[in-house]
Amino acid sequence: MKVISLINMKGGVAKTTLAINIADCLYKRHGKSVLVIDVDPQFNATQCLMSGKEYVKYLKDGNDTVVNVFDRSFRPTVGIVEGQKVNKPKSLGDIKTYKTLRGFELLPGALDLYKLEMAPGQGREYRIKNYLREKNYDYVIIDTPPTPSVWMTSALLASDFYLIPVKPDPISLTGIDLLHGIISEKTENFGLTIKCCGLVFTIAEAHTKIFKNAKNSITNSKRWKGKLYKNHLLKRVEVARTQLKQEFILDIGDSELKRSLTSIVQELIERTDDNE
Ligand SMILES: Nc1ncnc2c1ncn2[C@@H]1O[C@H](COP(=O)(O)OP(=O)(O)O)[C@@H](O)[C@H]1O
Ligand SMILES: [Mg+2]
């Protein structure tokens, strides 16, 4: 099982877009078993994978979200014992995932994550790792929030790899060094074994000067040299337009765009391969 977090301290760099489309491509094109975990309290990945109506019903029916991983008593299982309600904490092994219409699995996110008091040092950072201990998917893709938080730490602690989606512009590039600093700090504090499996340019317009400059700056950088993926996720309004309709890049009739995704996924498979 390969656990891969998509990380960037910047919002709007296509972390979520890439996460769900990588999951979709791994499942549809490569026949892999895939679980997506949405640890972003903004739960955009969940919104892309479930309709609003379905999500509301899912919650109403008392189904699980990532909140149950962090707070096992959050949605109590109610039993009647001698006329009294008792809260029975849910064990991690009992947390069920949602099968998306596409076929892969999702542990949905929830706004309720915001409500959880998550002081560091309570061991909650290890919850995703512990949750995944008994699981056996080919790939687990974790979509993370852009803020350094206990959720991000928990994703890093659970992951074998992190992938950095980055917009090819100067401001976005400065963010990746900050990210490197934060991961180095966590690596020290928690003894992480996570490895960077590369950096992907997203929302890219390859013919522009700004793109070429960004590419040069990465390939000439000591730290990021060799990390940049051969292909980049092309900028296309269709991607944004179809997202909340539970549609994916593989559904869009744009072969160049599809190729850009399938090439990224192929490279991800190679970069996370055990024999690498
Ligand atoms: N390839 C693309 N072309 C055009 N727009 C895109 C593309 N990928 C993502 N977007 C749009 O950019 C915005 C940010 O993407 P998102 O995946 O939510 O980023 P993040 O998770 O990093 O905040 C969204 O509105 C999304 O629809
Ligand atoms: Mg996001």
Give structural notes:
With 276 residues, the protein is an alpha/beta fold. The protein has one domain (2-271): 3-Layer(aba) Sandwich (Rossmann fold). It is 37% helix and 16% strand. The protein has a 7-stranded mixed β-sheet, with helices on both faces. A hairpin with a 2-residue loop joins strand 3 (77-81) and strand 4 (84-88). Helix 1 (15-28) crosses helix 10. The longest helix is centred in the middle third of the chain and has 21 residues, at 170-190. The relative contact order is 0.19. Residues 74-86 have low confidence and may be disordered. Adenosine-5'-diphosphate binds next to helix 1 and helix 9.
Mean pLDDT: 90
**CATH architecture descriptor name:** 3-Layer(aba) Sandwich
Evaluate the radius of gyration.
Answer: 19 Å
What composes the largest sheet? 7 strands, mixed
CATH homologous superfamily designation: P-loop containing nucleotide triphosphate hydrolases
Principal-axes geometry comes out as globular
Give the strand content.
15-25%
Topology:
Layout (H helix, E strand, L loop, with lengths): L1 E5 L8 H14 L5 E5 L5 H6 L2 H9 L6 H4 L6 E5 L2 E5 L9 E2 L5 E3 L19 H6 L6 E5 L6 H9 L2 E6 L3 H21 L4 E7 L7 H11 L17 H6 L12 H17 L5
Parallel strand pairs: 1-7, 1-8, 2-6, 2-7, 8-9
Antiparallel strand pairs: 3-4, 5-6
Helix pairs in contact: 1-10
The site of magnesium ion has 4 residues, from α1.
